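Support request, please re-run this one:
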Amino acid sequence: MDIGQMLSESYEYAKEALWEKWKKWILLIISAIIFPLLLGYTMEVMRGKKPAPPLENGWKLFIDGLKLFVVGIIYALPVILLAIVLIGGSVLLLMNPDTLVKGLGTMFAGIIVIVVVAVLISLVSTMGNVRLSRTNSMAEAFNFGAIFKHIGRIGWGNYFISLLVMYIIVGVVVVAIALIPVIGGLINLIIAPAYSIFTSRYYTQIYDSVPETT
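Re-run finished. Output below.
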């Protein structure tokens, strides 16, 4: 797995999808606000279509986006519940001077647990999202046997590092732009479709780096 090649290809893919296609870009910016539409378009990207597909059939994109959104919420539930229990419990301890130190320790440990669980779930959900896109079945997004098998063939270490590198690069770009006074947030909103297409194409390349088995 050549991470540099995947990053370069994803960049060129996103560039080809949007550059000098201003009408499509503007519609995708609007879709970033009406979120299911942009999510639906990322599913088109994760289906492995190349070059980037046109922006059409808005109703289908909306439905696909809702599916992806629901799957994301379901995957996020364990993290949300953990945060409520662990962080909520530590806050109660912090409110009592006699348990302040215990509360701080509990909160620190809770944050570590939440981060670890969130990372593990992210590894699984990313492949689940691609499976949803390929099969159009929400059940396949939670086919953990197939997901674990596919990640195992990629290699858990390779998979984790490839995602980490991409997240760091995108995160640095987003933060750097956000720090631009006054207009940073607006620029990030304008570039949001490019971020989505870039990351979705990157996920697709990771998924397709090994043959899919039935």
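The chain has a mean pLDDT of 89. The chain has one domain: 3-207.
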